[in-house]
Design a protein that fits this description.
Elements lengths: L2 H4 L9 E7 L5 E7 L1 H10 L3 E4 L3 E4 L8 E8 L5 E8 L13 H6 L1 H14 L10 H7 L1 H20 L3 H21 L4 H11 L1
Helix pairs in contact: 4-7, 5-7, 6-7
């Protein structure tokens, strides 16, 4: 049975509330509405469609290119709201920000760092531009592994010295270098989150 057939469109003037969440980071991107047509279009195309009171049926990203590819759609217990987990191709907010909720977007700093590392990896050049530090790490396996070893040792030393401030700084360095090493293996923070969730 399709999601459109499971939802109750008799309330709220034929609309259901849609909470759209980044499937990788867990960040809430936006809240909008959908009617039966929008939900059916979403299911048929695999990209989010909404119903706007001002613009009617709305294919997110149709003009900007910032489409939202559906990972999963889930109804709430009353069948009048939808949790849409997506992979966004760009900002969700019309103001150009990742999320319409600024503080929520900032909450998952690790996801933001991982996204930046992923962008650096995608932008790796063949020598035309000076590579960033992240790109140097991505292109040099020995350097990546050496830095993880160094940062691990510095973190352990700070913990042994009882220096909380230094330990926090070293932990941040270690996490960054770990995320770079994972990206070199085509993995990232989303995979770590999934592994932690499975263990929980």
């Amino acid at each position: 049975m399709s999601l459109a057939d499971q939802l109750d469109f008799t309330r709220n003037g034929g609309l259901v509330t849609v909470v759209t969440q980044d499937a990788t980071s867990g960040v809430v991107l936006m809240v909008a509405h959908a009617d039966r047509e929008a939900v059916e279009r979403t299911e048929a195309t695999g990209e989010m469609h909404y119903r706007s009171r001002t613009r009617g049926l709305w294919h997110k990203g149709a003009t900007s290119g910032h489409v939202q590819r559906v990972v999963s759609l889930e109804s709430d217990c009353d069948a009048d709201a939808v949790l849409a987990r997506v992979r966004p191709a760009g900002p969700a907010c019309h103001k150009g920000t990742t999320s319409c909720f600024a503080h929520t977007a900032a909450a998952d700093v690790l996801a933001a760092v991982d996204a930046t590392i992923r962008e650096r990896a995608a932008a790796c050049t063949d020598g035309g531009e000076t590579p960033t530090y992240t790109q140097r790490l991505l292109s040099d396996r020995n350097l990546r592994l050496k830095k993880i070893g160094e940062e691990s040792a510095e973190f352990v030393t700070a913990c042994a010295d009882g220096d909380a401030g230094r330990a926090v700084e070293e932990a941040a360095d270690l996490v960054y270098h770990t995320l770079v090493a994972l990206r070199a293996l085509d993995a990232g923070w989303g995979d770590v989150r999934a592994a932690l969730a499975a263990r929980r």
